[in-house]
Amino acid sequence: MTDTLIFAIPKGRILKEALPLLARAGIEPDADFHDPASRALQFGTNVPGLSLIRVRAFDAATFVAHGAADFGIVGSDVIDEFGYEALYAPVDLKIGGCRLSVAEPKALAEDDDPRSWSHVRVATKYPNITSRHFAARGVQAECVKLNGAMELAPRLGLTNRIVDLVSSGQTLKENGLVEVEVIADVSSRLIVSRPSFKRKAEVMTDWLARFREAVDA
Ligand SMILES: Nc1ncnc2c1ncn2[C@@H]1O[C@H](COP(=O)(O)OP(=O)(O)OP(=O)(O)O)[C@@H](O)[C@H]1O
Ligand SMILES: O=P(O)(O)OC[C@H]1O[C@H](OP(=O)(O)OP(=O)(O)O)[C@H](O)[C@@H]1O
């Protein structure tokens, strides 16, 4: 019997880079996946028994961690923020490269040293990573959770500082902010549900090999 498999793919900015990688691994979504008018959330593929779900980045990790999807793609930022034990992230896909950084207004940064902080208040989508990062050097982090547009927080007086993803630096620049500390380098990973991997070891081992080859191709 063929194992049925569900692959979770984030619908945001990773998607564009992930599709060529999926194609190199041998997975092509059905045409409705590319139809902007379609409201479907689960899609067939050219691989019998393999379907794709298109979900928000954080939710891709949740579906896989709970075994509702067998495997998928997410950023290492999301993996680190959740810290799900049931998630196994065996392949660095070398896409979605960026970094998670602390940033603050340019004027504040002119006379500031992050090493001197004992307390910091930040707006972020990553309260767990942020708290862990600062706690490791004895700094208490007060995190205000936002889901996007973190860069607005200093200007509007919500927090002086932010912890957010940076790649080109354009978003920080356009909002008068500068990076003062890098917390982590980020790239997208293939994630696998440990329970699924145990149940479907043969077919999933084969997929891991295909993804490793697709990364190197
Ligand atoms: N500027 C960036 N450059 C490269 N990769 C990024 C960048 N921003 C985010 N990423 C990666 O893409 C992932 C998804 O980010 P994206 O911005 O598409 O999601 P989002 O829109 O914030 O999430 P959601 O769909 O939940 O609203 C992040 O978890 C990160 O790994
Ligand atoms: O350094 P840059 O190249 O400017 O990229 C950084 C921006 O990219 C991400 O946001 P995204 O565009 O994904 O939107 P979001 O606010 O929905 O997270 C991140 O949250 C920054 O805002």
TrEMBL record:
Q: In which pathway does it act?
A: Amino-acid biosynthesis; L-histidine biosynthesis; L-histidine from 5-phospho-alpha-D-ribose 1-diphosphate: step 1/9
Principal location: cytoplasm
List, alphabetically, the Pfam families matched.
HisG
**Which reaction is catalysed here?**
1-(5-phospho-beta-D-ribosyl)-ATP + diphosphate = 5-phospho-alpha-D-ribose 1-diphosphate + ATP
Q: Could you tell me the EC number(s) of this protein?
A: 2.4.2.17
Give UniProt keywords alphabetically.
Answer: Amino-acid biosynthesis, ATP-binding, Cytoplasm, Glycosyltransferase, Histidine biosynthesis, Nucleotide-binding, Transferase
- Locate the ATP phosphoribosyltransferase catalytic domain: which residues? 56-212
Q: Which NCBIfam families match?
A: hisG
Which family does the entry's similarity section mention? Belongs to the ATP phosphoribosyltransferase family. Short subfamily.
Q: What is this protein called?
A: ATP phosphoribosyltransferase
UniProt lists the gene as: hisG
